[in-house]
């Protein structure tokens, strides 16, 4: 067996874990909660199986809050469903002043304006991979949910590179993910997640803020490990 095949087999499980994590996170932060998502998360052991839960106090505490909320509430009842929708809407959409604006430019731009240089920098990263965000031109490209979706798409692309045994292509995708994480998500998530955890009215979103912050921090280490294995 060639050394490249050994390398691919060695890193494939971690790539799969990252696909799972980013899929869950993008679905949580891009739109209001759906009943399908809540039903999936309510399955026995699903939340508790979030990646790196034993390696991060933030993820561990966040998972505990989300799990407790889902077990104690009838999440498919209209009352609880509406409660979650309102919690998402008032923090991320409006109509009132947002307690946790989900755009990178809200934290990096002095005037906190959208569609500024920060947004264009994110768009340039998307364009390399022909990633066209949902509601392009109407929703700013630097929305957290879109950035998480972009990372998810690149995670899927990384697995396809493994399946094609394209080591150079795989390394390029991982290098670009690391750059995007350092230049964008890690510039947004720490302050965003603190605002969200502080202002959430449900344990579900308070916990997901912690899970997000803990995962983004550890994913940088995961990417460094993957690139080190590739050499």
UniProtKB/TrEMBL annotation:
InterPro entries membership: DMSO/NO3_reduct_chaperone (IPR020945), TorD-like_sf (IPR036411), TorD/DmsD_chaperones (IPR050289)
Gene3D superfamilies referenced in this protein's UniProt entry, alphabetically: TorD-like (1.10.3480.10)
Pfam families per record: Nitrate_red_del
Keywords (A to Z) from UniProt: Chaperone
This protein's name: Dehydrogenase
């Amino acid at each position: 067996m060639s050394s490249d095949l050994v390398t691919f087999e060695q890193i494939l499980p971690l790539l799969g874990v990252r696909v799972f994590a980013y899929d869950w996170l993008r679905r949580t932060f891009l739109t209001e909660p759906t009943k399908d998502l809540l039903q999936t998360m309510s399955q026995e052991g699903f939340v508790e199986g979030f990646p790196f839960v034993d390696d991060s106090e933030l993820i561990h505490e966040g998972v505990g809050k989300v799990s407790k909320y889902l077990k104690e509430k009838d999440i498919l009842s209209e009352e609880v469903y509406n409660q979650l929708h309102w919690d998402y809407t008032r923090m991320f959409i409006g109509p009132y002043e947002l307690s946790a604006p989900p755009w990178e430019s809200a934290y990096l731009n002095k005037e906190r304006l959208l569609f500024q240089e920060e947004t264009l920098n994110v768009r340039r990263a998307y364009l390399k991979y022909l990633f066209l965000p949902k509601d392009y031109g109407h929703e700013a490209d630097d929305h957290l949910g879109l950035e998480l979706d972009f990372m998810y798409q690149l995670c899927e692309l990384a697995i396809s590179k493994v399946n094609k045994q394209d080591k150079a292509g795989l390394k390029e995708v991982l290098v670009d993910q690391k750059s995007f994480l350092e230049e964008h998500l890690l510039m947004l998530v720490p302050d965003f997640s603190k605002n969200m955890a502080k202002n959430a009215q449900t344990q579900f979103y308070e916990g997901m803020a912690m899970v997000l912050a803990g995962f983004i921090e550890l994913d940088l280490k995961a990417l460094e490990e993957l690139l080190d294995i590739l050499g």
